[in-house]
Amino acid sequence: MLEPPHGKAETRQGKGGPPGGDTKTPEQLSQLFRRMQKHLAERILAGELTAHLGYAPGEEKPSAQPNHRNGSSAKTVLTETGAVPLDIPRDCDGSLLPQLVPTGGIRVCALHRPPGN
Fold first, then answer.
1. Residue 78 falls within a domain, yes or no?
2. Strand pairing class (69-79; 82-91)
3. Range of 57's domain?
4. Distance CA 47, CA 31 (A)
5. Domain contains 10
6. Phi and psi for 27 in degrees, rounded to 5?
């Protein structure tokens, strides 16, 4: 089951149960897929920032690390299935260069195509 960041299961109507359990039309399925893409991309981007900084959110910042998390920026990226709005995490000194959504890029191929294809 897909768990949104706030920890509650989400369906089309926002109630508990399996995501997409009441999806009936192709448009509803497309909307569900875009929400899943958003959730997955934001988790990957958060992981990229954690790897870049060397500590996870909520952990104590290493004393040798001058850089830290600095919120996020909204960005809409394009996939083969349509536009997906993302919150791109930022670091204080701007040295994070995300691999999933490169700086200045708007197309994200990794969300819909296996690597090497």
1. yes
2. antiparallel
3. 26-91
4. 24
5. no
6. -65, -40
